[in-house]
Amino acid sequence: MAIGWAEIFCQFLVGISRSMILFIVCAGLSFILGVLRVPNIAHGSLYMIGAFATFSISKMIGGTYGFWVALALAPLLVVVVSLIAERLLFCHLYQREHLMLILFTFSVSLILGDLVKIVWGAEYRSVSPPEILKGSISLLGASVPRYNLFLIIIGPLVGIALWLFTTRTKIGKISRAAAVDREMVGVLGINVSWVFSFAFLVGCYLAGIGGALVAPTVSITLGMDHTLIIEAFLIVIIGGLGNMWGALVGSLIFGVTHSFGVLFWPQFAIVFPYMSVVIVLLLRPRGLLKSVW
Amino acid sequence: MLRVESVFKSFDEFMAVNGANLQVEKGEIVAVIGPNGAGKTTLFNLITGLLKPDRGRIIFKEEDITPLPPYEICRKGITRSFQIVNIFPRLTVFGNVQVAVLSHQRRSSNLFRSAERIAVKETREILETVGLLDKENLVAGSLSHGDQKILEIAIALGNEPELLILDEPTAGMSPEETQKTMELIKRLAKMRELTILFCEHDMEIVFSIAQRIMVMRHGRTIIQGTPEEVRSHPEVQEAYLGEEYARG
Amino acid sequence: MGDKRKPSNAVWILGIIFLFLIFIPPFAPRFFTYILGLIFVTSLVAMSLNLVVGFGGMFQFHHGVFYGVSAYATALVLTKTSLATWIGFMAGPIVATLTGLIIGWFCVRLTRLYFGMLQISLGSLLWAIVFRWYSFTGGDDGIHGIRMPSLLMSLNNSYYFILAIFILSLLLMYKILKSPFGNTLQAIRDNPQRCEAVGINVRRYQLLGILIATFFAGVAGVLFVILERSVFADLLFWVLSLEILIMCLLGGWFTFFGPILGTAIIISLRTFVGKYTEYWTLILGIILILVIFFLPEGVMGYVQEVLKPKMKEVKQEEKGIDASSGIGF
Amino acid sequence: MKRILWVSSLCLWGVIITLICLPFGAKAQGPIKIGIVDTYSGPPTTYTYDVRDAFKLAIDEVNAKGGVLGRKIEFTTRDDKFKVDICLSMAKELIMMEKVDILMGTINSAATLAVSEYCKGEKIPFIVTFSKSDKITGEKGHRYVFSVTENTAMIGKAAAAGLAKRPYVKYWIAGDDYEYGHALADGVWGNLKRLKPDVQLIGQSWWKVGEPELTPYLTAISAAKPDAVIFATGGASMVNAMKAAKATGFAERIPMFIHTATEHSTLAPLGLDAPEKVIGTSNYHFYYPDTPKNKAFAKAFKDAYGREPKVGALYGYLAAQFITRALTKAGKMDRERFIDALEGMKVDSPVGEIEMRAYDHQAMLPMYMGVTKKVAGYPFLIATDIVTIPASEVMPSIEEIKKVRGQ
What is the ipTM of this complex? Predict the structure, then answer.
């Protein structure tokens, strides 16, 4: 089978665009892991809620702007859900052992999963991309869906926004400091509880954006949380816990190796993500980039 | 018995140990002193293998132990206690010490004998020496801070070391407890013919029991010698001991 | 429990429960015999996991792989070869332990979450093989209707067999936990750094712990085949491993019998609440959260907490020693 | 102290035993009990809800007329979460504890095969309503298992019969990497090769079930420039495949065949965003065949549940028909007589008369091959140019069944 440069290029772009969604979700997960030390299994559920909310909102508004409004509002809905969960449950448990937190966030994901089923039903849902992003354009001889190009643009934007937030704003700096040394932040007379709460919401907001962005490319179903969360954890681990750029590197490794795996060795594409994690962890047992832990 | 030969260790940019030298002879009690951040704990971590030096050698009984992992260094006869309490909080006091005794007797991997019947005598002996025998069935995490520090030492004794390293054994203790602990250390050294290397903040203690003293500053060895030599060393006086000791 | 001279109350209680379990099959409905069998099998996996998680402090996130691999090994020997049945039964634990050796050898190089995620990746590779290799493992259809020797064909007989092996495994595990090795393992859980400092090769002991745990998971895998006579790729999927982990944590991961309780709670919940509502996972989630908030040591941990003062009282009367060691009942 | 423990533990067990035994009192001539174990959470519900709802509709009608043999029919459902172990223990619960007379359900192939083996041992009739593995009534078939749904062998035959009439030569196969996908691909390809020996397979790609992003695969496939692509996919991946085909414009360039692409379960969630010109097969459309019987059925379903029936509804309806007719014919609730009655039974349905083949207990269903198209008046795409492939061309022959069963 002859594979031309055009296909390889196209595959590369598609791989990167898939990485971008992973990156946005994983950056959120990693941020929460870094600042709060909470391995949040419910992160996948929030992503799912983001997708379902996008469906509902864009259907309610309809028309050309439906999707854009949904893209703005759905993550906020996710933030509201996570604010409730944080104030009600999470904030009492930050000091617990990791295994207990895993148990706890798993329970939350069970509850959220069933709540989504109660609210949205168990049917497949589907969102169409806005008119302007429909179809595909020809790029170096290969046809690339416009929506994927859109993702490639939006991914770095979100990344830069997060970077500016953590390095330029006061609260961002405080959360970063809290990631390294909690006691110090407490000593400074800052209400740590609110810093944590805020950091948690930022992470969840990213999960919501990820869910909203993925909505037009897939069928929105119950169970999409499970497929995502394990990949997200693997990405965060190989990138370096709590390191945002690590999440980016991890996502790119996942997205691109997977897309090329598909091109050259389709029968075994299923094992590529796991293989890459095994290799990375054996060579660099603490992830590729520096972990804040 | 132990020779540390110009050892270096840095964390990122920070030089924690910057060419330290140390010599300990058999049967001595040697103290390492220095201001906070002088690299004392790092030095101990290097000797016991928890950290690997960037450069330099550590020689114990004429053998280079620099590349060995901690557990092998321990088997060569060096054990230590930690500055921050570092025990097995969910095990009983007895269990804490027994773990070390079993490890020393190479019986840790015994799967089918009941641990309640192995190494009981040796463990109780150690507990009796340090005065924790009456608390042997309590969960270690529930002990007072002072008792936990004593337990630290007891665990270190479980391996019947030749060289015992104590990292601030009296940190956080009340004056009475400090007094008792120091008595214990002296007694141990005599009873078990131990060589002891320790570091300590309380200068009174240091000068009262140490036979030789090594002074560290910014990760460097300033001097190693008898208390008198150290006291009279100008740089030490200026840098560390301050006026009071210089006079007294 | 550690009392050497007189059987303690715990032993009495266990005796009563044991007698009760023996008399279940002839009297109770068949379904209960089956569910109890399922609880034994699953709690054996959970307890074997607890050896490394609760007592060894390792993040063994993909324990189900060893259970599944053993079930597949047994099923393959029984269906694809004409070897004697007992060879099939032996093959399970052996293959599981070998898998444990390979996966564990890699994993003990890492710590905590890294350990766990590496194990999930390695385990998922195995899952992918089982899932993909249609001609050999039947792919995701699995292998069903596995023939058993006539002695194990009836539900009651297989129940007794499972019960016997289960109790034997429990005794062995208890013995191991009370052995010097068990103590050392718990010491490693509490403080691996200190263990190195007292001359313990932490990685080697962790690996040994994994081997023992995977062996018992293997035993459970064989029992699963005996009970269900089916194997399928789900057994190796990470979701099942997570469920088993949840069972440990729910029951109480620092206690010996906690995982049985956790397993019993989850299985009964899904069987008996599942009758009335599709939303039994919602109820499970709420129960789990209540446990985390109000019983942080798990259900069994709580029971122990409640019973302990009383036991102390009794023992003092008998002039016994208060040996509340790491292993509770 | 010791006595307290004794007494309390005995009391506890006493209570448990009583609770256990309560529901097992003497059983009078109550209703006929049917147990359904199926997946009622997650993506498969798109299919299983219709089965359950259509079944309920039909059973309610029967009960309104006084039931069967003077007894009402009662059914109870269990959600297995698409997990084999849960499915198996729930099936056992239905059989051993609820003491159901007939078991139904399952969409998960592995679970179906496991439950089927169990029913064989327990001698309980088991009616499969959605699982597509051809092993169920083929290789692993037995006296107690029946299927009212198509299976991969039938899909393969039907698709090959339809595709052989089209001019394509160079094919590519792509699909979900699980048993259903592979079986379906093998079925289509084997039959197609037989009907039209000059077809060539130029490549394959397989992705993991639930893979969200299929664009990379489609790019790889278009690079090879096949005449047509056979997609062996199902469930949630269907919608993904259709979306990716639309976004990349793949469906415009290369004809693609996907089983169930024309089916309402696939097309409804996509609305008007589904790609046109996709070739698909299905057992049922609510608008085809255009007979009064089908119209009445679709209307009754829509009145009851506010949505159009999908293919699952046909299976649920068929299951209800076969069960009630066979019970009537058997004369009393006796499992062996029920099975004897069911073998070879014919029932009327929205897609015409359907026979339960006596030899392998497989319902003989016709298949409809069509092409997706936007049609005014529908808020979603529908199938057009429908060609009916009669059951005789769809069913594997008895010789083939004998062969796989090693007889």
Answer: 0.85
